[in-house]
Amino acid sequence: MRLKFYEANDEYLIDRYTITEEQLRYTMSPKASIELVKQDKDRHTVLVFDEDKLVTFFVLHENDGVKPYSSNEQSILTSFSGCPNIR
Fold this sequence. Notes:
Low-confidence stretches: none
Radius of gyration: 13 Å
Distance between the termini: 18 Å
Number of strands: 4
Number of helices: 3
Helix content: 10-25%
Shape: globular
Strand content: 25-35%
Strand order of the largest sheet: 1-2-3-4
Structural class: alpha+beta
Mean pLDDT: 84
Order of helices and strands: EHHHEEE
C-alpha cells in the first residue's frame, strides 16, 4: 500500500474511481470532495494505492474544519471510500 496527496494531474484517477450508490449514502463522492478541498486550505485529499491501482480515497480536515466532528483540532478523517470496481 502507498499513500499520496492528491495533485491536479491525478484527476484521471478520480475519473476512473467509482463508488456505489449505497456508499454515496454515507460519504461524499471523490469529485465533490475535491471541489471542497480546492476551496479550503484545511482539507487534504489522500489517495491510497495497492500497487498502481487507486483503491481508497479520503480527506483529512484540520483546524476549524474538524469542529463539526470533534473538539480536537488535529486532523480528522472524512469522505472515506473504497473503490469496489477498479478498472
